[in-house]
Give the backbone structure.
Amino acid sequence: MLAKFNHKTASSTLSGISAARFSLQRRRFSAAAALRSDAIFVHRDTSENNPNIPFEFNSKSMDEAQKIVAKYPPQYKKAAMIPLLHLAQKQNGWTSISVMNYIAKFLQVPPMRVYEVATFYTMFNRSPVGKYFLQVCTTTPCQLCGSSKIVETIENHLGIKVGETTSDKLFTLVEVECAGACINAPVISVNDDYFEDLTPEATVKLLDDLKAGNAVKRGPVSGRNNCEPQGGLTSLTTPPTGPGFMVRDDL
């Protein structure tokens, strides 16, 4: 009985040692916690988003859609899916299940093909957004130039948090990765327009002008025309030299 007991104890101890050694040998690729997307990639019918809500292109969108499809061979017209989804979202304000089903019918493809695209690209808003869709870039260059302060300013001024919409349905605020305007950081995309070189004060003025329906000027708010140095040119300040400059006379 004693020998049998010892055998089991030894076996259990060896198993524990093996498991511990295996655990020590496992190494994670990252020490940071795994982040999970806040987007839901499945559809759930709601009162504002279900297949029974009709959607179709209006006459203006239909004309544009026909021009888009005409760019592709008939057997490859499904390649027009992304620009057509953009067109539909611009008309509808967001990409509902009815929009996706309509585009599938328009291109004569299975609806799943459209669902795959619409859930992959984050620029397709699958939930309703406000009239002014505020996308604040918070990638490293913008962070270094104060994008966190811009987000904080918008949240405080509008009384919403990132991912929320104001009660009057005017503004929706989200954070995005690189807007591609690093030299003009920090930057906000309002629908299709960029507003750059922002400060908290300039951001509040922009929001107030949008809410009041005033005309707003796209681009840098700092006085720059595009992305030239704010303090003036530091190179290429003289006329370019002509042919032969710094070349030996005997050549």
Q: What stands out?
A: Residues 2-25 form the longest helix (24 residues). The radius of gyration is 28 Å.
